[in-house]
């Protein structure tokens, strides 16, 4: 037997022995490997790159407080490059080759849908940190971003209220993939329930990476000029937000005329935009950097120090935090808490220990992982864009809201269980 074959045989025997004892290869190693699955290149890098660094910062924090099961966490970072099939390939590598105990990653729903069969087939764990369209529950996924009733529905209710401008017409403008289309399906049904007819709803989609919004903005201005107060619901994702907002400014479309509420635009996305013409436009999230409380102050300070120490482009000079960063920070710490509670990194044991996990979040609330549906109970905030690219909170819920993954505004959702199989 050759040396390489002998080594392989011994390695296989060792893994089989560990498996028989109920110990994973990741748990048996000197460190516990953690997957980081975010686009560091391509159209989504503008939003996702910072989440990779947020995971690394959270891992450092967990390690500084004793790690998990007495071991240090070791990140394994891959770049799926805004390529949806590549997300699935990289996910399988992380689980089967790198033997990670958990993965933190994805932004778009198409990337999450791409990897979902992999995590279910291999019974692995994914923590997903971004708002999404709902209509999904998986045993193998924990959703630390918002469901539609924790972002989209409250935002539209605000726009229809007196404080929000009493909008009567709506433009549903998004990137052409599952999250915007499904969210807008829910919103159209919601608007119908409030007496808004299809004649007062304009719906349009653009591809990923789209950059020419001249005619779309012109059409919005024409639609808004027909008499009723009009608002734009934006589910544009990635770097297309920069030309969209620039064109809004170019055509003089101000928030006082046609307010835009965005679901995928935060502090990071506004970094490359002249925000002075955008003052008063809105974003709906579960966290803003401007929220004042000691927990957020500490979170911002930690990120500022991390960004400076690692010389992160942009953030080392002007550190910014945002909602998906907070959701990522919560997710890493909740997983670590659950693994320590379970005294194991085995998927099924961690899933059981995740039920009811709580964490003092930078949003100022103690957030809780729902015991059944794998979603966080989260507060909702609506913020107005400021000239400096930050947001003033103009509305918020008094307490965290329980997620409703299955929308009551979609008839086929009725009767679906609010817990993963």
Structure, explained:
This protein has helices at 3-20, 25-28, 45-64, 84-97, 109-121, 152-160, 178-193, 214-224, 241-250, 294-309, 323-342, 347-354, and strands spanning 31-37, 72-78, 102-105, 126-128, 141-143, 169-175, 201-206, 230-235, 260-262, 282-285, 358-360, 366-369, 376-377, 381-385, 391-396. The model is unreliable at 1-26 (pLDDT under 50). A hairpin with a 5-residue loop joins strand 14 (381-385) and strand 15. The strands form 3 sheets. It has a 7-stranded mixed sheet with strand order 7-6-8-9-10-14-15, with helices on both faces. Helix 4 runs parallel beside helix 5. The longest helix has 20 residues, at 45-64. It is an alpha/beta fold. It is 38% helix and 17% strand. The chain has 2 domains: 3-146 and 320-378, Rossmann fold (3-Layer(aba) Sandwich), CATH 3.40.50; 149-291 and 383-413, Rossmann fold.
Keywords:
421 residues, Rossmann fold, 2 domains, seven-stranded mixed β-sheet, 12 helices, disordered N terminus
How many domains would you count in the coordinates? 2
Could you say which overall geometry the principal axes of the C-alpha atoms support? globular
- Low-confidence stretches are 1-26
User: Counting H and I runs of at least 4 residues, what is the number of helices?
Assistant: 12
Name the structural class. Answer: alpha/beta
Question: What is the straight-line distance between the termini?
Answer: 46 Å
Radius of gyration: 22 Å
CATH superfamily of the largest domain, called what? Answer: Response regulator
Q: Topology as H/E string?
A: HHEHEHEHEEHEHEHEHEEHHHEEEEE
Portion of residues in beta strands equals: 15-25%
Strand count, sense and barrel status of the largest sheet are: 7 strands, mixed
Average pLDDT: 92
Name the CATH architecture of the largest domain.
Answer: 3-Layer(aba) Sandwich
What is the β-strand count?
15
The amount of helix comes to 25-40%
CATH structural class of the largest domain: Alpha Beta
Q: In which order are the strands of the major sheet placed? A: 7-6-8-9-10-14-15
């Amino acid at each position: 037997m050759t040396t390489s074959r002998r080594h392989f045989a011994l390695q296989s025997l060792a893994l089989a022995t560990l498996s028989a004892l109920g110990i994973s290869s990741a748990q048996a190693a000197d460190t516990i490997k953690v997957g980081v699955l975010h686009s560091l290149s391509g159209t989504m890098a503008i939003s996702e790159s910072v989440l990779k660094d947020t995971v690394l910062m959270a891992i450092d924090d967990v390690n500084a407080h004793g790690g998990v099961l007495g071991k240090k966490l070791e990140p394994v970072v891959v770049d799926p490059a805004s390529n949806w099939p590549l997300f699935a390939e990289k996910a399988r590598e992380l689980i089967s080759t790198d033997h990670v105990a958990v993965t933190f990653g994805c932004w778009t729903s198409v990337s999450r849908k791409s990897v979902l069969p992999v995590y279910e087939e291999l019974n692995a764990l994914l923590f997903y940190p971004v708002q999404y369209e709902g209509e999904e529950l998986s045993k193998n996924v924990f959703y630390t971003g918002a469901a539609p009733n924790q972002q989209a529905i409250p935002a539209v209710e605000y726009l229809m209220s007196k404080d929000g401008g009493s909008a009567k017409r709506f433009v549903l403008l998004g990137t052409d993939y599952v999250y915007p289309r499904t969210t807008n399906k829910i919103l159209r049904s919601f608007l119908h329930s409030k007496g808004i007819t299809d004649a007062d709803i304009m719906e349009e989609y653009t591809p990923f990476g789209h950059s020419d919004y001249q005619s779309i903005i012109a059409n919005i201005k024409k639609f808004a000029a027909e008499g009723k107060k009009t608002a734009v619901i934006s589910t544009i994702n990635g770097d297309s937000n920069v030309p969209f907002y620039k064109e809004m400014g170019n055509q003089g479309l101000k928030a006082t005329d046609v307010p835009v509420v965005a679901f995928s635009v935060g502090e990071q996305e506004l970094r490359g935009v002249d925000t002075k013409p955008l003052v008063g436009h809105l974003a709906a999230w579960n966290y803003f950097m401007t929220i004042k409380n000691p927990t957020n102050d500490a979170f911002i300070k930690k990120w500022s120090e991390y960004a400076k120490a690692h010389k992160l482009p942009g953030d080392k000079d002007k550190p910014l935090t945002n909602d998906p960063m907070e959701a990522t920070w919560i997710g890493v710490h909740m997983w670590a808490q659950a693994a320590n509670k379970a005294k194991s990194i085995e998927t099924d044991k961690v899933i059981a220990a995740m039920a009811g996990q709580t964490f003092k979040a930078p949003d100022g609330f103690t957030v809780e992982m729902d015991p059944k549906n794998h979603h966080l109970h989260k507060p909702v905030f609506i913020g107005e864009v400021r000239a400096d690219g930050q947001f003033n909170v103009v509305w918020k819920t008094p307490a965290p809201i329980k997620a409703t993954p299955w929308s009551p505004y979609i008839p086929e959702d009725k009767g679906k269980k609010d817990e993963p199989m």
